[in-house]
Amino acid sequence: MFARKANIPDRVVEHHVPETFSDRFAYRLVKFMRVFADAFFRKRYGHRAVVLETVAAVPGMVGGMLQHLKSIRHIRDDEGWIAELLDEAENERMHLMTFINIARPTVFERVLILLAQGVFFNLYFLLYLLAPKTAHRVVAYLEEEAVVSYTQYLAAIDDGKLENVPAPQIAIDYWDLPSDARLREVVIAVRADEAGHRDRNHGFADALSAGADEDGAPRTPSEDTQPGLPNGA
Question: How many Cβ atoms from other residues are within 10 Å of residue 3's Cβ?
């Protein structure tokens, strides 16, 4: 397994103000979903992470799969979209693998995972087929909320409300953390990942919003306006 260095942005907590109807739809949908997550998990941040990361790993896989099919259907290069989206899915999966070593899911939570993933996969698949820009915006707003949740998780650790347990070995290997790393370092690394996914998906949505070229490939904003966005996104 390769080590992944945490890339911590200068401003971790950011918000993209909705500008269009689809943006507002995506934002309100995510806020609606957040109500149920807060009501169910409350301050159980580890268990929240376990359940929600099983859902968070779905969009990248769905988007990567559909972009793959679109690329071979139109016989054109994907310009980096597929690799970026599949990397996002794998990264979210590693978040899950990390947190199951910290907060063991209950039987009820395992059933909830099955139901939530099944429903979300099918709904997101349809959304991506019909409105990929909105789908990426939904993910971006989900990641905004994830950053907020992990910031609250970090605050609970710093305030002594949650024990700062040793980091699981899988997290130390994946993020190349010090051998004596604790939960706090893990949460910071995960939060940085989520901030990166937030920015990427807002960038994808913006690229799709810019229009499509003649063969149906989304146009890409210049690298000056979208630093770090894959070419052709």
Answer: 10
Phi/psi region, residue 80 (left: phi>0; alpha: psi -120 to 50; beta: rest), is left
Q: Are 38 and 210 contacting, i.e. CB atoms less than 8 angstroms apart?
A: no
Tens of pLDDT, residues 181-229: 999 999 999 999 999 999 999 999 999 988 643 334 444 433 333 433 4
**Other CB atoms within 10 A of residue 151 CB:** 16
Token couple for 193: 């990942």
Cα end-to-end span (Å), the chain: 27
Which conformational region is residue 87 in: left (phi greater than 0), alpha (psi within -120 to 50 degrees), or beta? alpha
CA dihedral 52, 135, 129, 97 (to 10 degrees): -30
Report d(CA 129, CA 82) in Å as an integer: 15
